[in-house]
Amino acid sequence: MSRIIALESYDVRFPTSRHLDGSDAMNPDPDYSAAYLILRTDDASGLAGYGLVFTIGRGNDVQTAAVSALSHLVVGRDVDEVLGDLGAFARTLSDDSQLRWLGPEKGVMHMAIGAVINAVWDMAARRAGKPLWRFIADMSPEQLVATIDFRYLSDAITPDEALALLRAAEPGRAARLRALVEEGYPAYTTSPGWLGYSDEKLARLAREAVAEGFRTIKLKVGANLEDDIRRCRLAREAIGPDVAMAVDANQRWDVAPAIEWMRQLAPFDIAWIEEPTSPDDVLAHAAIRRAIAPVPVSTGEHTQNRVVFKQLLQAQAVDLIQIDAARVGGVNENLAILLLAAKFGVRVFPHAGGVGLCELVQHLAMADFIAISGSKEDRAIEFVDHLHEHFVDPVRIRAGRYLAPERAGFSAEMHARSVREHLYPDGPAWSGTAAPRAVAARASSA
Amino acid sequence: MSRIIALESYDVRFPTSRHLDGSDAMNPDPDYSAAYLILRTDDASGLAGYGLVFTIGRGNDVQTAAVSALSHLVVGRDVDEVLGDLGAFARTLSDDSQLRWLGPEKGVMHMAIGAVINAVWDMAARRAGKPLWRFIADMSPEQLVATIDFRYLSDAITPDEALALLRAAEPGRAARLRALVEEGYPAYTTSPGWLGYSDEKLARLAREAVAEGFRTIKLKVGANLEDDIRRCRLAREAIGPDVAMAVDANQRWDVAPAIEWMRQLAPFDIAWIEEPTSPDDVLAHAAIRRAIAPVPVSTGEHTQNRVVFKQLLQAQAVDLIQIDAARVGGVNENLAILLLAAKFGVRVFPHAGGVGLCELVQHLAMADFIAISGSKEDRAIEFVDHLHEHFVDPVRIRAGRYLAPERAGFSAEMHARSVREHLYPDGPAWSGTAAPRAVAARASSA
Q1: Nearest C-alpha of chain B: how many angstroms from A154?
Q2: What pLDDT digit, counting tens, does each position of B151-206 carry?
Q3: Is residue B157 in a domain?
Q4: Alpha helices, DSSP H only, in B129-274?
């Protein structure tokens, strides 16, 4: 019998604000960071599980503390028991009644829960010797449904309906598996479109993206309408009429400005407008969608949990959704969201970028293709070419497609040296160079 | 010129789980706790500001760390500048782009922001020599509107509409002020209805509540339908037909069970069903309300921010709302919520209990009566008789009514000795006696 003997958490930060990578209308100077965790076991094989929460800098210490606050629910537990019922394990985390008060099921504590759950799925897939996408795809419909918490979902999808959806996707699995391994899964790229880039850099990167094989690019918008009109025109000229172009406002607008802005950008043939307003505002997304149709509306990278995704779908507020591997309560909750999307016939364009989000979310999209929606038509996983070198099993992109991971696990493990060098505030990447505001935060009395 | 020179934060916990005070269907064994903070200044008068986030035990360390993570936005700032524009101050906290990623505007980080904002309002009222309710009531409509962040609200209420509402409430202010000071503000009590209590204790406490002058009581429900039917019958018999009786399910149900359960409880003349389902589920509240009318539906103590309150009102999902002084982004956001409620004609029954929530929220209800809704008809502030002795300016209840606070400030200050004795995990209330699970959490490697 082996046990989980430690939950180690690390405050890892990359000083990305020095180059304005990742700048958008809401996030002008992020330092891409991770509250990174390792679950150690006493298994003779050295079995471990890895997970992370992505943040953009300040507060990563709070997020790391939240991960550590879950130790009592994990450390000391029997590995077979935990991996043998991944649904029950996830419930023990989300059902801690005292911790639940801090959400419930949202924000810092929910993301921490999600990271620990993801680390346990990583451990399960490693023990099975499979990449996570394959580990999920090989589960029976009954096993998959048993991992899901249907609380607050039963007015939209029941376990029986979920089972029926999964059974309907069983024919063709072998062919889809072959197609995935041979072709990969489509990617789209946000690399050209960060707000901090010059027009020249935008146009050059857009052309390069098309040359590399991407069929969709995305631009950040929302800071200044005149700038956005000019940038959309430049990008459209650079990529030509046959490549899709999405825009992302990162929550900048109320309903009226969202409608006005998108009417001005619609002539550039917009694939979707992402996060036009508050991620909490189901009714506002619905109002915007009605007003700007046929421009598709989308959100999801900040959608806090399955309950809000459910409402976005019930209210016909979105044409497609993003999922994020590190925002909600782990693989289990993302499976619930993928099932909801399949039931409502809405396509999923997973959110990625940041630290490790590409590495993680590719597994969910690929499992969805094999076992849930059964489709990768008109779908793509976001790709941003940052920070992959810090991961032991980094994503592999060929001709605008994610190749299916082959190593066992969830691809969340970082190189020990990368963790060590970017530990905040004492790692070599930070010591002596930390931003003044960040230093002030630590030096103040508390 | 004086400056804010320190943000001190304290992990304060009361071992309430030893007596099952505060037990409900979702929270069987809370240890009522506070992430408590003091803003120190170098003002010669000793000016300070006090605030807190209420939690129910585990994770209070994470909440306290989140409060400390805001130090860089507060410490070193000029007191006149901060108190001179309380709207701008609140925006500097909610607009920190890196911290915003951890919500946005929800959960641990948003509650921390709310507590710091509340501490600054406490400081402002102290400096003005007024209790907070009076400080707010004495603001002009223009001053009050200037404190509010209307982002994501403009499809429901604009600054001009808010101004018009406040101006319409100006006639009669003097008379309402006299009435408040003479009569107090109605209270209702949850003390009889905790799930952990025996039938005998429930009936006895219900009779005592009526004898003490309360006109509304509230029972926790949702764990077992047969028990709830029996307990509602007992309570109704104890209080007679003329006292109102509300029930609170603490988020236990999906839509279908909520409807079924409430059809069984409706014969006991239910004043409202509170938190029938997930606090995130606007559409489910609307569906439940349509199905169980005329039983009123309510929620709010876990409603994360103004955006969700707005949607509850837009979707006609609730008949009344709870506000909580320590869940959302401080006084500013609660003023926005009170204005929304006034615009939509929905009554407010503030949530209280816990640690200091009664002390805080009474000020908001009283300010609402004087300056916003202009009414305290068919309204009441929740009252639970726990832990008031730890506060320097505890609530005063007479004949089922909150008396208007007279001391300057927001009544959040705790006795220094109470803080010292209940510091977790090393205060005398905890050392050597902490619950095993809590100890395990701290002892595990991380």
Answers
A1: 7
A2: 999 999 999 999 999 999 999 999 999 999 999 999 999 988 888 889 999 999 99
A3: no
A4: 132-137, 141-146, 159-168, 173-183, 199-212, 225-239, 255-265
d(CA B410, CA B413): 8
The verdict on A69 touching B (C-beta cutoff 8 Å) is yes
pLDDT 10s digits, B272-320: 999 999 999 999 999 999 999 999 999 999 999 999 999 999 999 999 9
B367 to chain A, closest Cα gap in Å: 27
Identify all chain B residues contacting A106, using CB atoms and an 8 Å cutoff.
106-107, 280, 304
The alpha carbon torsion through B332, B334, B336, B338 (nearest 10 deg) reads: -140
Residue A388 is a catalytic residue: no
Residue from A403, A321, A325 nearest A357 by CA: A325
**B440 to A110, B14, B113, B345: CA distances (angstroms):** 21, 18, 29, 49
Closest CA to A94 of A320, A355, A344, A306: A306
Note the pLDDT tens digit of each residue in A253-262.
Answer: 999 999 999 9
Establish if B227 touches chain A: CB-CB under 8 angstroms: no
**Residue A419, min C-alpha distance to chain B (Å):** 15
- When pLDDT is cut at 50, 70 and 90, the band that residue A58 belongs to is very high
Number of structural domains found in chain A:
1
Q: Which of B65, B287, B305 sits opposite A61 (nearest CB)?
A: B65
Query: Contact A101/B56, CB-based, under 8 Å?
Result: yes
Report the first-to-last Cα separation within chain B, whole angstroms.
44
How many residues are present in chain A?
446
Cα distance between residue A256 and residue A251, in whole Å: 13
A contacts of B435 (beta carbons < 8 Å): none
Residue B120 and residue B223 in one domain:
no
pLDDT, tens digit, 9 for 90 and up, residues A295-321 = 999 999 999 999 999 999 999 999 999
Active-site option among A218, A351, A390, A422: A351
Distance, CA of B90 to CA of A312 (rounded, Å): 29
Kindly state whether residues B208 and B323 are assigned to the same domain: yes
Residue A21: the pLDDT is: 63
Report in angstroms the alpha-carbon separations of A189 from A362, A402, B285: 14, 11, 39
Q: Return all residues near A175 (Cβ < 8 A) that are at least 6 apart.
A: none
ipTM, 2 dp: 0.95
**Residue A192 to residue A385: CA distance in whole angstroms:** 10
Catalytic residue among B106, B285, B310, B351: B351
Residue in A58, A308, A314 nearest the CB of B96: A58
B147 in a domain, yes or no? no
Q: Are residues B407 and B422 in the same domain?
A: no
* Residues whose CB falls within 8 Å of the CB of residue B215, separated by 6 or more in sequence, listed in order: B186, B188, B243, B244, B380, B400
The CATH number covering residue A180 comes to 3.20.20.120
The answer to the question of residue A312 being in a domain is: yes
Residues in chain B: 446
Residue with the larger pLDDT of the pair B443 and B304: B304
pLDDT tens across B312-355, in order?
999 999 999 999 999 999 999 999 999 999 999 999 999 999 99
Residue span of the structural domain in which B17 resides: 4-130+417-443
Residue B88 in domain: yes
Look at A106 and B101 and tell me if their CB atoms are within 8 Å.
Answer: no
For residue B442, the model assigns a pLDDT of 31
CA distances (Å), A64 to each of A84, A109, A353, B64, in order?
27, 10, 20, 13
